[in-house]
Each structure stands twice: as C-alpha cells, then as structure tokens.
Amino acid sequence: MRKIPFVISFVLTIILIWSLNKPWGAIPAFGKFISPQHGFWQNAEDATALTDLSLDFPQLKQKAEVYFDDRMVPHVFAQNDEDAYFIQGYLHAKFRLWQMEFQTHAAAGRISEILGNDPRFIRYDRETRRLGMVYAAENALKEIEKDPVGKACADSYTAGVNAYIVNLTESELPLEYKLLGYKPEKWTNLKIALLLKQMTRTLADFDLDLEKTNAKSKLSLADFDALYPPIADSLEPIIPKGTVFSKQSVVPVMPVTADSLYFEKKESLAVTEFTKQNPANGSNNWAVSGKKSKSGAPILCGDPHLDLSLPSIWYEMQITVPGSSTYGASLPGTPYIIIGFNNDIAWSVTNAGQDVKDYYEIKFRDASKKEYWFNNEWTSTRLKIETIKVKGELPIYDTVAYTVFGPVIYDQGFTEELAHGKALAVRWSAHDPSNEANTFYELNRAKNYMDYEEAIRGFTCPAQNFVFASRSGDIAIWQQGRFPARWNRQGMFVMPGSDSSYMWQGSIPQGENPHILNPERGFVESANQRAVDSAYPYYIPGDYTIPRGITITKNLSRMEQIVPEDMMALQNSNYNVQASFFRPVLLKYIKEDELDAAEKGFLALVKGWDLNNSAKSKATTVYQSWFDSLEVLIWKDELNQVTPQAPWPNEQTLIEALLKDSAFRFIDNINTTEKETLYEVVTSALKKATPELMDQEKAGTLEWAKHKNTTIYHLLRTVKPFARSGISIGGGGNIVNAVTHSHGPSWKMIVHLTDKIEAYGVYPGGQSGNPGSKYYDNGVDVWAAGKYNTLWMMGDKETKDKRVVGKIMFRK
Amino acid sequence: MKFIVATILTSLLAFAAGLYLPWWSIAIAAFIVSTLIHQKPWKSMLSGALGLFLLWVLLAIWIDSKNQGILSARISELLPLGGSAFLLILITAFVGALVAGLAALSGAYLKKLK
Predict the structure, then answer these.
(1) How many domains are contained in chain A?
(2) What are the helix (H) ranges across A108-166?
(3) Is ipTM strictly over 0.95?
(4) Which residue of A51, A196, A636, A691 shows the fewest CB atoms closer than 10 Å?
(5) What number of other Cβ atoms are within 10 A of residue A433's Cβ?
(6) Local mean pLDDT, 10-residue blocks, chain A (812 residues)
(7) What is the number of alpha carbons within 13 Å of residue A176 lying toward its C-beta?
(8) Is residue A171 in some structural domain?
(9) Closest residue by Cα to residue B73 from A79, A774, A478
C-alpha cells in the first residue's frame, strides 16, 4: 500500500522522460532539444566572442595558422598542400558540416534516409540513383585517385573533415541534426566526388529532349522550328560574329534510318523528369583588357547564378602555401578555390549550357531486365540493386539496368506512366571518367595564359565558359567541356537504342571548342548565350538565353576608361533589354479605346516606364504580367495538344517572331472559329492580367520587389524561420542583375589586376551555416543593396593587422 | 532552510550532471537530492521543480543575451511561439521543472518507504 505512491510517481517520471526523449512526427525529442546544456540553446553562439584556438592534429605535417577577419573569412597559411587542404576540410566542416553532408546525401539519392517516408523523397532518390549519380561519382573518384597529387589533396581534405566530426559532442552538433534527429557520418573521398557531381547535375542535367519528343509527335516540323529555333536572330555570341572557324575535323554520320525511325516517328512518351534542374542555372562573366580600363590593367568580373540558399553554396576563403596565394569562393565538400584569383591571374565560370544528356529507347527481352536488343542480338545488361534506406521504415530496393549507353532511367518499374514495356536509357557526359578537381588545383596555381589553358584542358563536365585575365595583360574565354560531335539534330529527340548507329560518334576536339584570346574589341564576356553563330561547323544544341549577353556586350562595347565601380554598376544593372525590343509592339497594338479606367492606368505605367526592373517599379510588374499573359494566349492553344507537356518556348522566340511578323500564325487561337489578330491578343492579354494586378495594387504588392518577394530559403525549404524573405531588390531572370524569386547571383566578384590586385566580392549569406550565429546571413543586406566587400589577400606579415579578429593555430 | 538547500543543491547537481551526461540526468539529480534531504513529498517536488526552473531559466537567459536573441527569435517562430523569446525561455524552464519535480517526488516517496 505504501509502495503505491512511489511506484506511480516513479513510473510517471520514466514515461515523461521517455516521451520527451523521442521524436513525435516532425517534432524532435523535446527534452533533449530544449535542454540549455544539450539542445538548440547550445547553438546560440556568443555574438561577441572571438575565435582564439590552438589545435593539435598528428595528421598535419607542419604547423599552420588561420586568421579570421571581421566577416569570418579565414586566411589560411600552411607550409604544404596537404596541410592546407586538411585545414580547408576542417574549416568547411566547422562552419558548414550539415550542408556538406546533406548535399552529398542528395547527390547519392539518400534523402529518404534523413527526411523519411514521403513519396516525393522516395521518387527523388530513385530518380537520382537511376540517373547514375553514384556511378558518375565512383568513376570520377577513380580518376582523382589515379593522380598522386590529387589523391593526396583529397585524402588530406577528407582527414580534415573527419578530424572535426570525430571531436563533436552531441551538444555541439549543428542545429539541423538536432531538429532531424540524426548524427553525421564519416566523410570519404567519394563524397568529394559526389559534391562535384551534385554541382554537375545542377549545371549539366537540363535538357528538353523528352518534351521535344512529345512536341514532335503532335506538331508539324515547320511549327516545331518556329517554336524552338536553334539560333536566335538577336544572338550576341560569346565569340564575336564574323569569326572564321576551322573546318570540323570530326564529321559524324547521320544513320540511314534517321528519317523513318527518328525525325518522322510520331510517338509520345508519357514520362516527365521528377526533378528538373533550373534552366536559369547560369551566370555572367566578363573581362575587359587594359585598352579599355582607366588603369591600363585588366578587370575580370563574374557572378554565378544558382538557387539562393542558406547556408550559402559558397564559402569565402584564402589559401596560402609557399609560392601560391589563392582567394575566392570555395564549395564546402571539395578542396580548392573554385572561382577567384591569385597574385597573377583571375578566373570565373558561366554555364556553357550545351546539351550533354541524351535518351535512347531500349527494348528489354523480359521483365527481368537481364537482356536488351542491341546490334541484332540479345545483350546482357549489368544489374545494380540500389538500396534506399527510409527513416523509420524498411528499406526500398530498386534494380537498375546498365546498358552500353548508360543506366536505364525510366522503365516499367519507374515511372508507372511509361507503358508497353518501353524503357529509356540515359547517355550523360557526367558518367565519363574525368578529373575536374584537377582543373581547380591547377587554376589556383596558374600564373599566365599557358597555365590556364593547360589547367582547363581536361575539364569534361559540367562544361563552363572559363573567363581569364592576367596581370600581364591577357584576357581570354574558353567554352570548355567534352562535347559529342553531333549530326544535325542528333539528340534533340529520344533516339533508337537498338543498334550503335545513333551513338555519339566522338567528341569535338578540345582545340575546336569556342575560345578566344585578346580579341580586337578589347573584352570577352559570356552570359549563357550560344557561344558561336551559325558559322561554327558543329551542331551544338543547348539551354541558351539571349538577353543578358546582349546587354553586357552593348555596354562593354561602348565603355572606355573603365573603373571597378563601372563594373559594379553593370553587375547591378536592372535594364530590361527584352522590354526595350518588345514594349513598342505592345504599345503599337493595344486598342486603347477598348480599355477601362484601371486598364488605362496600367497602360500608362508601362508607357512611362524607364525600362529598368527596379525594386520599387510598378511598371515592371505590369509589363511582366502583360507579357506572360500574352505568351499564354499565343502559345497555349497549340501546346496543349502535346502530352504530357511541351517545352515552353523561350521568351526571346516570341519577341523576335512578333517583331518580324505581326501576322505570326500562332496568334490565332486554334480553338476558336475566328482568326485573332495581334491587336486583339495584345489587348486581351492586358485585360486578362488586370484583375490580378488590381488585387496586387490593393494588397500593396504591385512594386516589383514586393511582387517578386525574393527569398533565400534554408536548404530545408519548409523551415521558414531559417530563411530570409521579402528582400528588397530589383532585377529578373533575363536581366544582368539576375535575381528572381529565389534564384540569382550567389557570388559576385570583381578583380582589378593592377600590380597590387584589388578585388571586391559579396554573396547573399554568411560564412557560418549556423542559424544561431550572427554570421549566418550578415551578407544578405550588403548584397541586396548592390554593395561589395573589399576582399583582402592577406600577407603572412600582416598577422597584427587590425582586420584580424580571430585565429586558430594548428600544430602537429 | 532545508527547502532552500534542497533547491540549490538540485540546481548545482543537475548542472554538473549536464556537463557529462544526457539531458535526463536532471531527473537523477533531483531524485538523489530528494532522497538525501528529507522533506514532505510535496515540498521535495517543489524543490526539484524550482531547482530546475531556476537553473534552466538562468542558463537560457544568459545564453540568449550573449547571443543577442538571434536564435531564440528563429526557434520561437519555428515552435511556433510567435517569435517570443520570453515564451521560449519560459517553456524551457517549465520542461526542466516538470521532469525534475516528478523525479524529486518519486525520490521522496522512496525515502518514505524506508
């Protein structure tokens, strides 16, 4: 009897602790999470504390120092390469561990393992495995490890990351681990390769082959070409118009069956990619020579455009070893500086956008997928069983068949829509063995144009436009990657995979990739436009955009006596060049007398607009809504015939078509008996856009920045309190200042190659990945205001400089 | 007097335990103190609860002020407590108090059995 109060209170205590020690749905183990000595409170960093540490690691060969400036940018001084990359690994882990691991899990199709049982996560993981992401990483790792220098750097980097992980206590875990209830696993060299392939997927996975195949099945060839012209008229190519190209040395042969089995085949495929990369993943870069700059020294500029996220994709740092000091943006998850400069040269990259992924239709012998028909016989596949772990559930297994082309990404097992035993294999350049990491190792140490050329020569995928400038006065640009030499329109559609005649027949030789050194016009630039005009002999399809290249080329052509501030102004330019072409069409064909008062008001805004997508501009929102509405009226009726989805034409395509021909046949709505005119659709488009514009006006969101609501999401998009939204900034998708809702310049850099190099940079985030740190997002406002930080290439004698606010001494 | 000693001892022991042991060691601390310092069960419970309330509220306030409220603003939005750091600190203290109070109560009843 007397035992009862004890037993009850004791049991209740145990039950309470048990329930506070386990997650409930999305809520983490609450007792652990809220305990000030263990949970999230431990991640609330002291905002005034300065880093002052002494760390001993037997893995180091010699001693090394790291000095932090007031933005927590580390300036690393090491005596040899391995120590430098050990420290880079350690720092990446110290400030961005969760991000590195999460991104490499995503690359490996292991999201369900962390986030749990949700059909979207499972589908993402299955598609990622079937795309051959891990296969690609394994192939890359083999190449990295064949090279003794590359292997030593990778090993050291991995050791540095693990040195941090191994010393972490539970209360020191990054916040996201506490929220999601898991712990970091050991880092490996394979994860470096996975991180590189994740960037590759972001940049070189986009194509419209499936959608175009479906479009071909419903549209005439003439309509198809009108909707998707391969070369835009207004293109300002990277390599100036009028350049003479050497004859192509590789001449691929179109298969004899191409007409019947490829061009005229009218079969649609009921499959869509689940995860589609953002076609706007691109960038701007340019360099002006001493001829055009006030100082006589070249100026190089670059701003890569990616999904804006917190933690930021880039981590700024300096790495100094004897004989070489490099500064710039690094990627947590891999060693080296990816975009930056040293004491002699500077470089940056934009996405080439060439299509390096094709699909082949495969016929399996039976449901076992063990054999497929190829070159007149049943050929064995290599079967790989993928194990997809799911948090809180049993693992899922998926058998993926590998063919001579690559993995079969879509078949009866995935996705269900693909009927009648159809299967599609994917041929992707990212699978090919290559060592991209080596390019960055060499660029970090390059001293001149020859070094740069040598460094980029082996770079295969994701192809980039490498812009270059040297203190000695050279400027250059090279579209570098390994591109298949295609016969005209090869790969535009899904190809027959039953024999070798449709396979890629060799690559464009590296020297025949578009490139130029010290051009007459005194500048080089790229902004994801097609690299060359139609004079170039090879067929090079891709995801190209036109407007930014036009704006940049026009500006650089007319500018003289250029100073870095002029370059900042150009990177920040909100000028809407497309609107400069197209507004006259809208204003000419609007039937003003048919408009009511509200519509007239919106028209007046567009008339009075200065053609800048400024943050406070209401006219920008009206123009863009009017244009979008017009696009839908013109394209939707024809495109709706295509299932499941036709590719949406480029905005530039509509603009050029209407400028050339006001009786463009797509103006007519095929679902109505009358034949619409341009007057009618332009007017109707404004009328259709008006109700929503009026709602926005009432809600106070008509201003462009409010309408766009630029938001920097946390990598876990649903965790809103870790994001920054409502950022007041202008720009837009086809504007040099390429800021959209959640995509834009993730790093902006300007390097003035005077004797003592001056450099400026900024990114929308902060050095720390910890939402509890004041360095988590302290750069966002500077970036949004169009301002830049001065980048400090610290000298080894400057350790007492007042800019140094923290340090870590590394000892062996 | 006993009450004050028991309360403060609970706080100190819980803090020391928390440096090396998991979060639920606060229960062990409260349990031990209430078996050592003999009070009526409801007073023991109050000592335990108050001991942890004070410890966790002070730790949270101290951490929060050095952090300039950066993380508490985000977490209290996440939870969702409307962004109130005050509520977040209160809940922190309340959870600690609940666990320690119950543990202290069972310690007192155990003591009574002997």
Answers:
(1) 1
(2) 111-115, 119-130, 133-146, 148-166
(3) yes
(4) A691
(5) 14
(6) 86 96 92 97 95 96 97 98 98 98 98 95 96 97 96 98 97 97 97 97 93 92 91 94 93 93 86 87 95 97 96 98 97 98 97 95 92 96 97 95 96 73 92 96 98 97 97 97 96 94 96 96 96 95 94 97 98 97 96 95 97 97 97 94 90 94 91 91 97 96 97 94 96 95 97 96 98 97 98 95 96 92
(7) 24
(8) no
(9) A774
Residue A95 within any structural domain of the chain: no
Q: Which of B15, B24, B74 sits opposite A21 (nearest CB)?
A: B24
Q: Name the residue range of residue A669's domain.
A: 577-708
Domain boundaries, given as residue ranges, for chain B: 2-113
Q: A251 is written with which tokens?
A: 């001449």
- Note the pLDDT of residue A418: 62
DSSP helix/strand/coil, A370: coil
State residue A280's pLDDT score: 86
Question: A646 and A653 in contact (C-beta within 8 Å)?
Answer: no
Distances (CA, A) of A785 to A157, A253, A615, A762: 35, 53, 10, 11
Q: Is residue A589 part of a domain?
A: yes
In a domain, A319, yes or no: no
Taking an 8 Å cut-off on Cβ atoms, the answer to whether B77 and A720 are in contact is yes
Q: Tell me, what DSSP letter sits at residue A790?
A: E
A residues 46..75 contacting B (CB < 8 A)? 46-49
Q: Under an 8 A CB cutoff, do B109 and A39 touch?
A: no
Q: How many residues does chain A have?
A: 812
Residue of B31 and A266 predicted with greater confidence: B31
The arrangement of strands across the sheet holding A357-362 comes to A408-410, A423-428, A357-362, A495-496
d(CA A439, CA A460): 10
Look-up of token digits 């400028």: A659
Query: Percentages helix, strand, coil for chain B, rounded to the nearest 5?
Result: 85, 0, 15
Mutation site for A-interface testing, chosen from B34, B54, B74 by largest number of A Cβ within 10 Å: B74
- Residues A176, A102: contact at Cβ < 8 Å? yes
Q: What angle do CA A165, A171, A172 make, to 5 degrees?
A: 40
Set of chain A residues whose Cβ sits within 8 Å of the Cβ of B27: 13, 17
Tell me whether A404 touches chain B (CB under 8 Å): no
With CA atoms as reference, report the closest residue to A215 among A203, A202, A225, A201. A225
**A271 burial class (0-12, 13-18, 19+ CB within 10 angstroms)?**
buried
**Does any CB of chain B come closer than 8 Å to the CB of residue A35?**
yes
Say if the Cβ atoms of A6 and B77 lie within 8 Å: no
User: How many inter-chain contacts (A to B, CB under 8 Å) are there?
Assistant: 118
Q: Are A576 and A732 in contact (CB under 8 A)?
A: yes
Q: In angstroms, how far is CA A254 from the centroid of its own chain?
A: 33
CATH number at residue A619: 1.10.1400.10
Tokens of A670: 């095929």
Q: Which of A3, A30, A46 is facing B95, going by the closest CB pair?
A: A30
What is the per-residue pLDDT for A26? 86
Number of H helices, E strands in chain B: 5, 0
Count CB-CB contacts under 10 A for residue A132: 24
Collect all residues of chain A within an 8 Å Cβ-Cβ radius of residue B112.
2, 5-6
CB < 8 Å to A25, chain B: none
Residues belonging to chain B with any Cβ–Cβ distance to chain A shorter than 8 Å:
15, 18-19, 22-24, 26-27, 31, 41, 56, 59-60, 63-64, 66-68, 70-75, 77-78, 91-92, 95-96, 98-99, 102-103, 105-106, 109-110, 112-113
Beta-sheet pairing, A52-56 with A806-811 = parallel
Task: Assess contact for A653 and A229: CB atoms under 8 A.
Answer: yes
Phi, psi dihedrals of residue A749, rounded to the nearest 5° = -140, 140
